């Protein structure tokens, strides 16, 4: 990790600017997740005086403890699963021997530079921004304090402070050495067994990785199904895949008590059952500490869980917010999308306002769950006339050949004759999603989609079949 300050003009005392340095900037960016880093670099390249602040690593959670290292783990786990599929399809490969050290090394060497952001700092400073490593706190309109020094922003402040793992108030949990996404991504060795609290995106992706590396995994999900925000059909397929891979799935039951005796975690569930494992991963959602950033001083309610923003990502005059804290979807692509809108707004450039109607998301389990727009339930809550079509991926020729599980589900607004949502679960489900993301985003008429030629034998040909099933 680079220590101290780096900036285009000065870097005295190692952690802050020198007394002679101008403390007035056009824009101050607090928090350099993917969106904040993009805003800071782009505005600096356009000639604005930008102060960029992060108390940890430039780039935020995604490159160091989120998307990128977790997808490296998933790539490795998928390779193991694919090798094991040779039996019954192509002969034998002998015993597949997982080795976590290969993954851990790749995460250190290729993904995170051993959690050192010097390359990112240099890139930002190279674009003309001033970087200070420290915790920014909004003192008032146009004023941000960092370690006792106050900086002034003449145009405005952009907040991209992100989220951390939300640890639920379960009796005993806080006193145990539980893991969050940070510890599991930094792990150089995997445990023999693990309890994963939370069967959302993080819990499901990482449970499958660990199981494929030989860890005995139990997922505990308080809601009645895994990936509770996605279509129920996808949850059903995933639960049965997990069980076939030896993952124990406990759905519809919360944890009530956690004990750690120095070696083993013991968790008592709401139904009275007790489970034990060497490790416990908390993957029960994320939280933002908005008060700590001083957002209440610019009009955000003291108890707000997310920052209300308009369609230009403005919080109030001279303050913008991007990323997880806006509550529009905790995804890197949302952070980057909003950053683009803020950059235009700050520069006074024209462009479309933010719209989340065709928000895509992909959970990188195997089978992969891609989705865009509304689920059937959301559509029925919002629209008068909803049609749904579902095609099991095994009924497509390519899915049958591959012995694949999954489905394509379409959700249409029958009154307007367009798709408003879709789910593509299967091999490369996130890639198949691309076609449907275009359809929802561009509001392609259903008749136009029905008259398209779908290549044979592809998985996306299942879209044509599901269109025929819309009812
Ligand atoms: C395990 C895991 C896997 C994920 N996989 C995916 C995926 O596959 N695809 C996807 O789209 N998303 C994924 N996500 C979500 C994704 O990581 C986030 O949505 C993304 O990082 C965007 O977050 P952000 O822009 O809000 O800021 P963050 O990435 O959270 O960064 C915020 C930064 O601000 C800093 N900061 C906070 N407060 C202050 C302050 N007061 N002063 C200065 N700095 C401060 C923080 O230290 C941090 O560096 C994953 C997340 C996790 C945890
Ligand atoms: N592939 C991706 O894009 C990807 C991958 C990982 C994370 N993410 C992002 O990160 C966010 C956070 O992920 P996450 O999985 O932590 O959150 P999540 O909100 O997706 O899932 C958390 C799950 O934990 C459950 N839960 C809450 N309290 C519980 C308790 N006490 N006991 C048992 N279960 C409990 C919830 O019902 C929920 O299903 C996601 O919403 C997503 O936006 C994205």
From TrEMBL:
Is NAD one of the keywords?
yes
Task: Report the superkingdom from the record.
Answer: Bacteria
Q: Which residues bind NAD(+)?
A: 198-205, 221, 285
Q: How is the cofactor bound?
A: Binds 1 FAD per subunit.
Q: Where is this region: Disordered?
A: 1-20
What is any Pfam family matched here?
A: Pyr_redox_2
- Keywords in UniProt for this one? FAD, Flavoprotein, NAD, Nucleotide-binding, Pyruvate
Q: According to the UniProt record, which cysteines are disulfide-bonded?
A: 62-67
Q: Where is the composition biased (Polar residues)?
A: 1-15
Listed name of the protein: Pyruvate/2-oxoglutarate dehydrogenase complex dihydrolipoamide dehydrogenase (E3) component
What is the species of this protein?
Humibacillus xanthopallidus
Q: Give the organism's phylogenetic lineage.
A: Bacteria, Bacillati, Actinomycetota, Actinomycetes, Micrococcales
């Amino acid at each position: 990790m680079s220590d101290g300050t780096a900036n285009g003009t000065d870097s005295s005392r190692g952690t802050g600017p020198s007394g002679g340095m101008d403390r007035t900037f056009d824009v101050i960016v607090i928090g350099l997740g993917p969106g904040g880093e993009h805003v800071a670099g782009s505005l600096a390249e356009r000639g604005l005086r930008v102060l960029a602040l992060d108390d940890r690593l430039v780039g935020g959670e995604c490159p160091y403890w989120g998307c990128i290292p977790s997808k490296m783990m998933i790539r490795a786990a998928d390779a193991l699963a694919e090798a094991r599929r040779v039996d019954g399809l192509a002969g034998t490969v002998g015993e597949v021997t997982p080795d976590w050290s290969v993954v851990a090394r790749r995460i250190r060497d290729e993904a995170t530079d051993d959690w050192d952001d010097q390359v990112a700092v240099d890139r930002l400073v190279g674009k003309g921004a001033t970087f200070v490593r420290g915790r920014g706190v909004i003192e008032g309109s146009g004023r941000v304090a960092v370690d006792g020094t106050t900086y002034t922003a003449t145009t405005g402040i952009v907040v991209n402070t992100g989220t951390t793992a939300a640890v639920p108030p379960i009796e005993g949990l806080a006193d145990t050495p539980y893991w969050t996404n940070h510890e599991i991504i930094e792990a150089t060795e995997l445990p023999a067994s693990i309890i994963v609290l939370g069967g959302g995106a993080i819990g499901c992706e990482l449970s499958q990785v660990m199981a494929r590396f030989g860890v005995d995994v139990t997922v505990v999900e308080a809601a009645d199904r895994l990936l509770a925000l996605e279509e129920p059909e996808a949850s059903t397929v995933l639960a049965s895949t997990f069980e076939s891979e030896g993952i124990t799935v406990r759905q519809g039951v919360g944890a009530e008590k956690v004990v750690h005796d120095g070696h083993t975690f013991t968790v008592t569930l709401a139904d009275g059952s007790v489970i034990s494992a060497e490790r416990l991963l908390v993957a029960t959602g994320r939280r933002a500490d908005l008060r700590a950033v001083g957002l209440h001083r610019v009009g955000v309610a003291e108890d707000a869980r997310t920052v209300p923003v308009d369609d230009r990502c403005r919080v109030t005059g001279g303050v913008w917010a991007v990323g997880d804290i806006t509550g529009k979807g905790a995804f890197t692509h949302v952070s980057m999308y909003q950053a683009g809108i803020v950059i235009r707004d700050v520069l006074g450039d024209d462009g479309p306002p933010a719209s989340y109607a065709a928000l895509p998301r992909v959970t990188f389990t195997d089978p992969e769950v891609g989705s865009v727009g509304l689920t059937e339930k959301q559509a029925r809550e919002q629209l008068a006339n909803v049609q749904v079509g579902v095609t099991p991926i095994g009924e497509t020729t390519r899915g049958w050949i591959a012995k694949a599980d999954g489905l394509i589900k379409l959700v249409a607004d029958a009154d307007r004759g367009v798709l408003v949502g879709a789910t593509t679960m299967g091999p490369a489900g996130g890639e198949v999603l691309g076609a449907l993301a275009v359809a929802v985003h561009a509001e392609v008429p259903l008749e136009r989609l029905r008259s398209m030629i779908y290549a044979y034998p592809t998985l996306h040909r299942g879209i044509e079949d599901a269109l025929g099933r819309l009812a």
